[in-house]
Amino acid sequence: MINNINKLAVAGKFSVVISLLVCLCFNGYGQNTFVKHFTTKEGLPSNNCYYTLQDKNGYIWISSDAGVSRFDGNMFENFSVDDGLPDNQIIQMNQDKKGKIWFSALNGQLSYFFNGKIYNEHNDKLLSLLKFNGVVVSFFEDSKGNMWFGTNKNLLAKWDGHFLTRYSSSNSKNQFINTFVYEDKAGTIWASSAHCLRIFRGSKFTLTKKTVAPLSYKTSINRADKTMLFLDHNGLNIKDGNTERLTIKIEEKILNENPGYFYAENDQSVWLSTNTGVYQIKREKTTRYLHQISTNQVIKDTQSNMWFTTSNGIYFLPKKENRIYILDAGQGLSNNNIKSLTKDRKNALWLGLGDGMINHVQHPGAPVKKISLPDKIKYQQIKQLGFDMAYQNLFFASDNGLGIVKNPNGINPEINYLREMSNSGFVLKSFSISKNNKLAISLSSGVVIIDTPLNNLTFSSSAYEEGKNFFSGRSYHVYYDKKQNLWFSNVKGLSELCSDRLNKRYEQHQLLTKRINDIKQAADGTTVLATDGYGLLFFKNNKLIKQLTIKDGLANNICKSIFIRDGQVWVMTNSGLNRILTHKNYAVESFEYTNAMLHDDVNGLYIDRDTAYFATNHGLVYFPISPYDSRNTSPKVLISAIISNRLSLTQRPGNIILSPDHNNIIFYYSAIDFENKTILYRYRLKANGNWTETKNRRIEFSSLEPGKYTFELCARTPNSSWSKPVQVKFTLVEHFWQSTYFILLLILLASITFYKIAVIITRQQKNKEQQQLLYKNKILMLEQRALQAMMNPHFVFNVMNSIQHYINTKDTSSANKILTGFAKLIRKNLDICTRSFITLEEELDYLILYLNLEKKRFGEKFNYHIEIDETIDQDETLLPSMLLQPYIENAIWHGLMPQEEGGEINILITRMENQAMLIRIIDNGIGFDNSLKIKKDSHDSRGMSLTQERINLINQTEANPIQIEVAQNGNSGTIISILIPFK
Questions:
Q1: Nearest CA to 495 among 479, 144, 456, 630?
Q2: Which of 255, 362, 775, 908 has its CA 20 to 30 A from that of 591?
Q3: How far apart are CA 442 and CA 489, in angstroms?
């Protein structure tokens, strides 16, 4: 059903104008009143319509032989057997006090619409009791809430909501066929049928001596004041309890045209539907509508609009102040193709038509005087009319010519034609006449000024004087203001000729360079410009003071023509008519109810004091002017459906509760307005939230968070303020894991878990700290042991032998040097052994002392070289104390000394990119692997073992470990690589 709505809306938008014009041209008016026509092209399920009802919300319901439609003024929403109707042929409808809309089907079954859903015997078992052997032709709900159903058989039924009581008669002369039920002011129930009149007493009906003889079951209605109106062979009657009287006498001819459902405004007026049209009958006057169209019903809605139900769709007649009238060929005009209009001093209308015709009529309905121009080709379309200041001469123009009708009100008016002296052709756009009867003509070649057109209606292109009587450039419009200044627009824009001086207004503002279709000047000197795409421009005191566009309320930015009267600017746009009240801060008023006739087919306009006239291709359209009312009634906004997860939600007072997985919700809505098509909506989901405006009739909210919401919706037309918001409150229930209790429980469990983890981490931290203390103690012990093992006993012994040798050979100088170096080494060793980390500079000083002693012992058999990267700050770089000496000592004793020729050690220190320092100890001895093979004893380097153990312990307490690698360099030689992170 929702998809059907959207489909019909699109179809209606494109077909409404064509349908309305067809309605108008053939039979869409009573006398000369325009009546709007709706058919299947606009969305009805069928043109064969039976009954129309306006419900309490304002919707118009139409029953037909293809289902029922609900109409909000803009869109038809259709219901059929697919939506729950027992039969598509619904012949009558009625709404009870609870808001249920009852449908009577041709197959005799009843159903009703309530809260957006149709109920039948399948989803409401009580309806299975309401089965009659006939068609329900009348509904009535009495003051006690009983529903009365009259049928086309000998049966009248009363339904109290639980039990059904049937009434019939065995007397063939007094049967209950087509019974109409009426309740008077005393609460007495009356039953009127074609054969008799009954009164209900207690629990049964009693025949009365009086008779009420309605023409049919369709010609009786109950009124709110508990009186009954009915039509008989004399006319309209009123029944008030026991009394009846004739109120309006109706012609027998009309009563013989098979009257249908009627509407009576009061005792003085009745709207009567017949098989030949609609009659509005008053005591003093009868007006006919829809001539020769079979009409079934007439109703009046809450906005005083009339609706006619026919076998050819439905018709809409606006309330009296919004009615539109047409003067066309049917009322005496030469043809319907009116291209221009004006009025003379006597307030008579002059119309320029197609086929070279000019018509003159004092007022609509008066006799038409006609002037026929001989040259029908050149003057095929009279697109402009205008009088001179004395109203004695009528100027007229077509696309290819211009002429003057002198003494147009005379019996034989004289006609003169504009002639170019060389007989060359020209294309005319517009003309204007000044107070002193100068004529300005807008041509495709430029603007031409003729000083004395009443005496000499000629001009010569060869005699043009640029800037004086000619202004070159394709022009669009000319206009003389009250001060005799000539305004004209051309391809450059707007210009003003003032006292022979040309003011190029287009140089003052970019908007004044645009194409201008019409120019008029208000009494205060404001020049109003109708542009071709940029709205209305207001120019005053040499300045552009105002621009009005669609954003300000204009129907369209393409403005075609202007008329100014009493400070009000009337503008015809490509999409309809607007009135601008300059004295009310440029308030823009729309006339959307006229769009069916004035949407895009207007050739000219003339605004009188109380009537607005429009030249159109289907006649002269006019309507009465009403004063501007800023308090126009806002449209009634209604929510038609609420969908959540493809399920329709029932609209009930109070709060709607939705489960957590229903967090996607769609609102379908509309505004009841039968005259305005442009309806703007605004909505919000929070009471204090910002409003969002839209023209859509559907809003979807996705992935809503749990909580309470209040959906508010307003509507307005271009001429009204915002309507009172309609509200729908709903609560989206949270998931159990989103509830406060669950979150508190989760927080409690998380707190306990965090506490347990904190206890474990604290315990581990304490254990780690204790372990680190053990490691540090062990490191100190190892450092002491390393100190003890640092000085190889062989090294000490050999140093002492060397000193003894130099003393015995009386080489005291050498002995002193070795003894001094050895003493420094011992002192340095004692200094650094007390610290875990020392600087690189201190480590190198210690190594140099050691290496110099070894060099003195072995002489040329041993050499060493130290190379340091210059980017390394030796004074700031730290490394574990006594780290390198054990590896160098091992390289000398086990790598170099086993060779007879000795060898060399290179110590290379470089900076790495990963914030580390690489120390390589390279010797050219017998090689690490070979050294292990030739060892004869199980001696192990105690210093290297202790150093490696220290490094392992240090790595357990530091974030970045020290890496040591010992490898043989090919067949001989050894490389020791030590990677130390910078601290």
A1: 479
A2: 362
A3: 9
Neighbours of 273 (CB within 10 A): 29
433-439 contacts, C-beta under 8 A, 24 or more apart: 433/386, 433/387, 433/388, 433/389, 433/395, 433/480, 434/480, 434/484, 434/486, 435/389, 435/480, 435/482, 435/484, 436/389, 436/484, 437/388, 437/389, 438/480, 438/484, 439/395
Q: Report the C-alpha gap between 142 and 525 in whole angstroms.
A: 67
Residue with tokens 């104008």: 17
pLDDT of 780: 55
Q: Which of 548, 486, 667 is nearest to 116 (CA)?
A: 667
Q: What is the C-alpha to C-alpha distance for residues 664 and 275, in angstroms, rounded to an integer?
A: 51
- Residue-wise pLDDT for 802-827, tens only, equals 677 677 776 777 777 778 877 887 88
* Stretch 95-107: mean pLDDT: 95
Q: Give the HSE-up count for residue 856: Cα atoms under 13 Å, Cβ half-sphere.
A: 24
Question: 691 and 619 in contact (C-beta within 8 Å)?
Answer: no
Mind listing the pLDDT tens digit for each residue in 755-800? Answer: 889 888 888 887 777 777 666 656 655 555 555 444 556 566 666 7
Residue 129 three-state SS: helix
Cα dihedral angle (191, 197, 200, 204), rounded to 10 degrees?
-100
In the 8-state DSSP scheme, what is residue 59? Answer: P
CB atoms within 10 A of CB 393: 21
Characterize the bridge pairing of strands 903-912 and 862-868: parallel
CB 979 within 8 A of CB 963: yes
Give the residue among 129, 1, 6, 133 at the shortest CA–CA distance from 68.
1
Residues 6 or more apart from 338 whose CB is under 8 A from it? 351, 352, 353, 354, 603, 604, 615, 616, 617, 619, 620
> Could you tell me the pLDDT band of residue 20, with boundaries at 50, 70 and 90?
very low
Instruction: Report pLDDT digits (tens) over 59-91.
Output: 999 999 999 999 999 999 999 999 999 999 999
Q: Which two tokens stand for residue 730?
A: 């709903």
Task: From 468, 465, 461, select the one nearest 438 (Cα to Cα).
Answer: 468
Predicted pLDDT at 791 = 53
- The end-to-end CA distance of the chain, in Å, is 78
User: What pairs with residue 351 in β-bridges?
Assistant: 341, 359
**Rounded to 5°, angle at Cα 267 from 262 and 272:** 20
Closest CA to 947 of 892, 875, 879, 857: 879
pLDDT of residue 14: 31
Q: Which residue has the tokens 């030249």?
A: 615
pLDDT higher than threshold 80 for residue 216:
yes
Handedness of CA 637, 638, 644, 646 (dihedral sign): negative
Q: Is 753 helix (H, G, I), strand (E, B) or coil?
A: helix
Per-residue model confidence as pLDDT tens digits over 393-403? 999 999 999 99
Tokens standing for 459?
């001009």
Mean residue pLDDT of the chain comes to 87
Percentage of residues of the chain with pLDDT beyond 70: 92
C-alpha–C-alpha distance, residues 55 and 113, integer Å:
11
- Per-residue 3-state assignment (H helix, E strand, C coil) for 296-363: EEEEECCCCCEEEEEECEEEEECCHHHCCEEECHHHCCCCCCEEEEEECCCCCEEEEEECCEEEEECC
893: DSSP letter: I
Residue type, 589: E
Residue type, 860: E
Write the pLDDT tens digit of every residue in 171-213.
Answer: 888 899 999 999 999 999 999 987 789 999 888 999 998 878 8
Please state at what angle helix 793-808 crosses helix 840-858, rounded to 10 degrees: 50
Tell me the HSE value of 927 on the side-chain side, using a 13 A CA sphere. Answer: 10
